[in-house]
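Mods, move this if it's the wrong board.
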Amino acid sequence: MSEWVELNMGPQHPSTHGVLRLKIKVEGEIVREVEPVIGYLHRNAEKLCENTFFCDNLLYFDRMDYVGAPGMEVGYLEAAEKLLGVPPPERAIWIRTIMAELSRIASHLVWLGAYGLDLGMLTPFFYAFDLREKIMTIFVEASGSRLLTNYCSIGGVYQDFNEKIVQEIEDFINIAPSKIEELNSLFVKNDIFISRTKGIGYMSKEVAIDYGVTGPMLRASGVEYDVRKAEPYLAYSKVNFEIPVSSKGDNLARFLVRIEEMRQSVKIISQAIKKLPDGPFFNPKAKKSMMIRMRGEGEVYARTEASKGEFGVYIVGDGGVKPYRVRVRSPSLKNLSVLREIGKNVMIADLVAISGTTDLVFGEIDR
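Not the wrong board. Structure tokens:
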């Protein structure tokens, strides 16, 4: 038996997508053991939320999965509004649904472009970010910000959709399907990409469930579970869409599931923009000037389907204007943990391809 050598991949390495450190033991070019090491970002968002007014905590959630900030806002608000008893009006619910799905597409496009770079493909990065820029334009018009939108608020959204925003969304859904197909072709018609993904990084249904994996990674292993269907929130029970599932469980399956998710998100947005009702976009009970005096008592837990998987928010209120306890169920953390199983006994280069399919954002992991 040849000697095993311990190496560090990261935390400063382009293929680890942030500050992930992988302690790996290799036998020649074969990875025998993988140990993910986290904690280099020191975000501490949960504890900060316990010292901040309920409405202001959205700032910290924006900075968790920062490539899909509106999705993070929805996760927090689903819990906070239950605790505070301030439901959003119907129009705000539909607006949030649209923003959450735009956020999902934007997040997947960042992953898609970065994953191409992991495998030595530069062209798809530009194609992905060109389409994502259309979403960023919508975010800027709606919130004034590209990345950390801070658009939603307890009781609704800070600004209504105007005619320009609606037109930009309609323009996006008109071009997005063909752009997504173009992106898909750049990958699946590339023999090198197929050889780096097909049959590589296999994860069984049982392993995925044991590790608490959710989102596209879980569905790529044959489990048809999506919070939007299992426990509908926002307007998801009022629109038609399908849950992309694959039984292959490999890198390619995780890629294809995310591609199909973008198609389904466009379908949801197309329906939502047509069904967008008239009416107020903010609950009158939650006047902005009164937000800091909102008090909540009890405990609530809410789950949403973020771009990475099931995003859970647990809040305990003691009757004060700040939460007593905030706890987040991070999909990225669970998805990362399975790397120690699916990253064993593969080539070092394959480990890069496998870890890339977990789609990690460390603001959410080191929270």
